[in-house]
Amino acid sequence: MEKIIELIKTEKPSKARSELLEMNVVDIATLMEDIEGKDLILLFRILPKDVAAEVFSYISKEQRQYIVESITDREIAGIVDELFMDDTVDFIEEMPANVVKKILKNTDENTRKIINHLLSYPEDSAGSIMTIEFVDVKKEMTIKDAIEHIKKTGIDKETVDTLYVIDANRKLEGVIPIRKVLLCEEGTLIKDIMDTNFVFINTLDDQEEVAAQFKKYDYFSMPVVDKENRLVGIITIDDILDIIEEENEEDFAKMNALEPSDEEYLKTSVFSLAKHRIVWLLVLMLSATFTSIIIRRYDEVLSSIVILAAYIPMLMDTGGNSGAQASTLIIRGLALGEVEMKDYMKIVWKEFRISIVVGTALAVLNFLRLLFIERVGVPVALTVCISLFFTVILAKVIGGTLPIIAKKFKLDPAIMAAPLITTIVDTFALMVYFSMATWIIGI
Q1: Contacts of 408 (CB under 8 A, 6+ apart)
Q2: Mind spelling out the 3-state secondary structure of 221-252?
Q3: Are residues 114 and 165 in the same domain?
Q4: Does residue 269 fall inside a structural domain?
Q5: Is residue 92 located within the same domain as residue 225?
Q6: Which of 88, 93, 124, 200 is deepest in the core (most CB within 10 A)?
Q7: For residue 415, is it within any domain?
Q8: Is 128 within a domain?
Q9: Angle at 77 between CA 76 and CA 78, to 5 degrees
Q10: ∠ CA 169-173-174, rounded to 5°
Q11: Looking at the keywords, is RNA-binding present (predicted)?
Q12: Can you give the CATH number for the domain in which 169 is found?
């Protein structure tokens, strides 16, 4: 990249352009990541208009904003004309109001109307991620007519892998893969080969449900219809991959008690990062006060047999880890559609049986360790190990069911992950521990 910039500065832009055009647009965007200021604009301007638009769709939000603020109105119009509509909408959604105003000012009335219409769909809905660049045909066409139509209109479409058959009112009647079109005789009618048993998406469907549909049917693109079954757009697999990554990052953040953020870590301010963390930490801190209340309530037990305090961390950690294991598997199952809310009792029964096996193994091994290695008395060893056994059972059942309960109340199951489960299980673990101490040791 330094070599290319040097060529531009030494007034050899054609050679610099040739170097760049030998590369993939994604690689060009990657090389531009560390370029800033005037060098970024110089580099962007030597690219052909169509290549520049493709590169533009891959560079960072900050670079896009800088370019739009630095280039002429005519250049902005050229970028918008070359971008696919879904990329344009995604780009506009990321920009501040003053940049959006500048972009919309440099688009024609029809494009502006389409952009505003796509922006009106709810966030994270199918309508907000679809593109309107697709090839539609009529069922009365012959294969020859369809191929001619593709040649005339397909150049500006995001994909021509699938043709969508619509009637005079734009209602979706069928789909045809391009392979089928190419392999049929020229005189064959579209209506004779179209597939009427197709899967479609509604504009208001949640993007996570859309991703699940793509996974289920292994499609590269799917049609999007409105409430009157009119074809309004398509969603392609590249957008679905972005959604899957976005949803995974969001779930990962929630599972670790963080507010989801679209910003890159190194580009996010300290205050913003702290704001995303402090809410959950405050909730968990306040909920953890229940454990201190329980300990204070049983301070006489701890005063009588001080050694009991030494095993509290082990008991709480094992319970938290057991619950986190169960919740992680159920959250994953819900995300992949492997378990549903109707499976609630099956999950409880399965986690209960797992906890019996795990709890027994841990309790027996721990009992032997306490007796023969740490040389504690049998009453204390029994107290610790029986408490451990019941704590594991409670933790597994709680960890397995809370994500289902969250789903029932239309909450993200990911919030019922390790931090929250650990806090809840800690409270139950202490209650069991001190109850066992009171009963077995007789304090």
Answers
A1: 341
A2: EEEEECCCCEEEEEEEHHHHHHHHHHHHHHHH
A3: no
A4: no
A5: no
A6: 88
A7: yes
A8: no
A9: 90
A10: 145
A11: no
A12: 3.10.580.10
How far apart CA 380 and CA 441 sit, in angstroms, is: 7
Which tokens sit at 225?
């219809």
CA torsion 100→221→161→231, rounded to 10°?
Answer: -70
Is residue 281 in some structural domain? no
- Residues 78 and 168 grouped into a single domain: no
Q: For 359, what's the count of Cα atoms within 13 Å in the CB-facing half-sphere?
A: 23
**β 135-137/162-166 pair status:** parallel
For the record, the structure tokens of 32 come out as 């531009």
Q: Are 167 and 190 in contact (CB under 8 A)?
A: no
Among candidate residues 198, 220, 235, the one where a domain is terminated: 235
The verdict on 180 and 317 lying in the same domain is no
Structure tokens at 75: 């250049």
| 100, 178: one domain | no
How many domains does one find in the chain? 3
Q: With a cut of 50, which residues of the chain have pLDDT below it?
A: none
- Report the pLDDT value the prediction gives residue 418, as an integer from 0 to 100: 65
pLDDT score for 261: 67
Structure tokens at 174: 């069928």
State pLDDT tens for residues 69-92: 888 888 888 888 888 888 888 888
Do residues 312 and 342 both lie within one domain? yes
pLDDT of 258 reads: 65
Domain match, 155 and 114 both: no
Residue with tokens 């101490």: 437
Any idea which residue has 């892998």 for tokens? Answer: 161
CA 243, chain centre distance (Å): 5
Phi, psi (degrees; rounded to nearest 5) at 323: -65, -40
- How far does Cα 194 stand from its chain's mean position? 34
Return the structure tokens found at 362.
């841990």
> Rounded CA gap, 311 and 96, in Å?
54
Q: Which of 216, 138, 214, 215 is nearest to 172 (CA)?
A: 138
320/396 same-domain check: yes
The predicted pLDDT at position 99 comes to 85
Distance, CA of 391 to CA of 396 (rounded, Å): 9
